[in-house]
Amino acid sequence: xxxxxxxxxxxxxxxxxxxxxxxxxxxxxxxxxxxxxxxxxxxxxxxxxxxxxxxxxxxxxxxxxxxxxxxxxxxxxxxxxxxxxxxxxxxxxxxxxxxxxxxxxxxxxxxxxxxxxxxxxxxxxxxxxxxxxxxxxxxxxxxxxxxxxxxxxxxxxxxxxxxxxxxxxxxxxxxxxxxxxxxxxxxxxxxxxxxxxxxxxxxxxxxxxxxxxxxxxxxxxxxxxxxxxxxxxxxxxxxxxxxxxxxxxxxxxxxxxxxxxxxxxxxxxxxxxxxxxxxxxxxxxxxxxxxxxxxxxxxxxxxxxxxxxxxxxxxxxxxxxxxxxxxxxxxxxxxxxxxxxxxxxxxxxxxxxxxxxxxxxxxxxxxxxxxxx
Length: 373
Description:
Layout: H1 2-9, E1 32-39, E2 45-52, E3 63-68, E4 81-86, E5 89-90, E6 100-106, H2 117-124, E7 129-133, E8 138-139, E9 142-143, H3 146-165, E10 173-183, H4 185-193, E11 219-225, E12 249-254, H5 262-272, E13 278-283, H6 303-309, H7 316-335, E14 364-369
Parallel strand pairs: 1-5, 6-7, 6-10, 10-11, 11-12, 12-13
Antiparallel strand pairs: 1-2, 2-7, 3-4, 8-9, 13-14
Helix pairs in contact: 2-7, 3-4
């Protein structure tokens, strides 16, 4: 048993940050479980759920995830899937006697429900129930028409949020407090789910018959990582429609993002969202891959697969640790009303960001804006 425990401790978990991480990235107080459920409110959606758990005696908090290989379709020379370790016990008993806020996590186009375990496991260890969706027509290796993602991304998010908040499938959820974290197309959905109304004259959206959306009362905040949609020719929002986003919002982006855009993309919709108490985290010299897991260890990848995981300049574990820090502070503040987190959102000009190690915030810009009066 001792040898087995040491083996698990030696595993490289994406959710456990390296030693040079900012303060709030650290693993939380809880060990966690994971289980797979299916939501069928609108269409069939596999959902992976992480939660604070009671680990039975004789068991270790460890699992192995199987993920489809990055890409729109299988390619010669690449395995169709790969395995990587997780710090969660499959189907562990939920921690009894407590309820926890719900966080819905939405991947990009394409992606997978296990593509963001760096944040799903990490948040569960800090007292959240985290549900990551496999979005039909948008999963690695099984990609459908892009129009399906444009139509269904926000409805998928809201269906999972509503189903789980109703007490179906997963126990211990505090149905009054929820958030959505979306990466790329998941960010597009998060903005729409959070109240940013679609631009129905958009060259890419106007012929789709987009649904009218209602932001649920228990959705208290969103995190939009490299959200797609504000850039031309998508123009998914206008300056007026973006004001419909009234929830607290954390935007995360690389200033060299060549998919969602920076000045004419993410920062533009951030500036337009004047009804939101919002913050902008910018990674200097980063491109679009600011939201997924690193490339898997021990798997021979071609360049096309490699660039689906990694950044050309930044260490991926460094990006993810910084994101863990700010997302933890943001959700603790807005879902748990933790007043101790307020200091992380009021950095003084030309001073070290709170929680960062000496000399170690190089390349990071962070700023916040209050809602317009």
